[in-house]
Amino acid sequence: MIKFDQVTKIYDNLTALKNVSLEVHKGEFVSLVGQSGAGKSTLLSLIIGEDKPNSGRIFIDDIDVAQIRRSDIPYLRRKIGVVFQDIRLLPKRTAYENVAFALEVSGEKTHVIEKEVPKILEMVGLVERAHAFPHEMSGGEKQRVAIARALSHRPVLLLADEPTGNLDAINAADIIDLLIKINKAGTTVILATHAKELVNSVKKRVVTIEKGQVIYDQQKGKYML
Predict the structure, then answer these.
(1) What's domain 28-52+82-218's architecture?
(2) 26 partner at 20 to 30 Å CA-CA among 134, 159, 188, 196?
């Protein structure tokens, strides 16, 4: 599904990624680990076309992301759901409305939205909180809304960038359990994190980045740093 071929990314003379080659197959759950500044977020931003590499090639489902036109990036991103640590919910919209809005901006019809949003909220365990506003939710609930929003287009790939960074241990574990559930339903998941205990509990593939390079790639791996 994803292939990095000798990818290098440089920002203002700082090498964020150096000659990275990596493949992620359909249906995998990959924990992408490393210290802050190791290159995890850069790798994710390249996948969604937010940045382009200085050299090397990136393929998603045989689409060369490095060569894609700016006007085509929105179509690429419909294949990809993204969850950020800072969540970015619309504060004056309910959980239901935050998820619905993601479908509205892509032009979905009202009857489709009314059918799909309850299904998505049920998947993330938020049916009873559908009409709650962000300020009325716990950190874990807000992160679940963010995940629901990312799933609104039924993406084939879900990227989660430090989704548990602001959560306590119990809520963080719940979010990881939800990501595993989503993966088991068929969505490829890449989790970028430095939460050692959570990575070790997942017991899935672990890719470790240090100073912009992949130093470990283990099936059913552990946090090695």
Answers:
(1) 3-Layer(aba) Sandwich (3.40)
(2) 196
E strands, 25-72, are 29-33, 55-60, 63-64
Burial of 210 (0-12, 13-18, 19+ CB in 10 A): middle
- Neighbouring C-alpha atoms within 13 Å toward the C-beta of 52: 10
What does residue 189 show for φ and ψ, rounded to 5 degrees? -125, 130
Cβ 43 vs Cβ 217: under 8 Å: no
pLDDT (tens digit, 9 = 90+) per residue, 140-173?
Answer: 999 999 999 999 988 999 999 988 888 888 899 9
Question: How far is it, in rounded angstroms, from Cα 39 to Cα 209?
Answer: 7
Note the pLDDT tens digit of each residue in 35-45: 888 999 999 99
For the chain, domain boundaries:
28-52+82-218
